[in-house]
TrEMBL record:
One of its GO terms (cellular component) is photoreceptor connecting cilium. GO terms for biological process: non-motile cilium assembly; retinal rod cell development. It comes from the Eukaryota. This is FTM protein. It holds the Pfam family RPGR1_C.
Length: 166
């Protein structure tokens, strides 16, 4: 029982981000609440307008009963007691400083979200879908699109069934 996450590609549309010389390399982190974080192993050169960078990164979060009780409990509570901040996978687009300027910090550029609760409600996984990336400073500004797949429905159904059995 698992949740499969694929970070496929990223495109940027915001002129401010596109023209920012300090942003050169980007990687993407994916976080499930505060339980687990995964990131693309490579940071790629920032795309130009109209271009996509392809990560083709895939990761699996195991939520089996035997070894991952805490993750299952989290999924149960999310399905039973919704809270907008904890029911989503959060994707963070991060600027990686160039090799010759390693004294600079990594900087969060934008965030994108996929609601696990919505996957369960619609009974449909997200397959190669573009989701909005909003500015890390102002979430009303869309700075680009992240193409992702999130396959969680089977695991969510299993957790939900367990809730009904308890």
């Amino acid at each position: 029982e698992k949740i499969r996450i694929e970070i496929i590609s990223l495109s940027l549309t915001d002129p401010r981000v596109l023209s920012d010389e300090t942003i050169q390399q980007l990687f993407v982190e994916c976080r499930l609440y505060n339980l687990i974080a995964e990131e693309t192993p490579l940071s790629l050169p920032k795309p130009t307008r109209g271009q996509r960078i392809h990560y083709n990164y895939s990761s699996v979060i195991h939520v089996d009963k035997a070894n991952n009780g805490a993750r299952r409990e989290y999924l149960k509570s999310m399905l039973l007691k919704p809270d907008g901040h904890t029911e989503s996978l959060r994707f963070t687009v991060v600027s990686d400083p160039p090799e010759d300027e390693q004294d600079l910090e990594c900087e969060d550029i934008g965030f994108a979200y996929v609601s696990l609760r919505e996957i369960f409600q619609k009974q449909r996984d997200i397959i190669e879908q573009d989701i909005n990336v909003v500015d890390s400073q102002d979430d009303s500004v869309v700075i680009g699109k992240l193409r992702v797949s999130v396959e969680a429905l089977h695991a969510l159904r299993s957790v939900y069934q367990e809730c009904q059995d308890d």
